[in-house]
Design a protein that fits this description.
three-stranded antiparallel beta sheet, 1 helix
Length: about 70
């Protein structure tokens, strides 16, 4: 969105939402600490909980669901 310039301190904010049975959404914003609220960069991803040996999506564990539900 905007170019970062050196020197400067960067604040990364992580968010999660929209949990489903096997997935949740996550995204991150980056801003300079001396320009709070001005987003310089952002991105996101869908996280899928996977049983790697079986290569299948599986239900989110209760402890993960509790973290992404708040």
């Amino acid at each position: 969105y905007k170019q970062f310039e050196f020197p400067g301190d960067i604040l990364a904010k992580m968010f999660v939402s929209d949990h489903g049975r096997t997935t949740f959404e996550s995204w991150c914003t980056l801003e300079r600490t001396d320009q709070p609220g001005v987003i310089f960069a952002a991105g996101g991803a869908t996280t899928i909980w996977v049983d790697f040996p079986n290569q299948k999506a599986v239900t989110l564990p209760d402890w993960v669901r509790a973290l992404v539900s708040d």
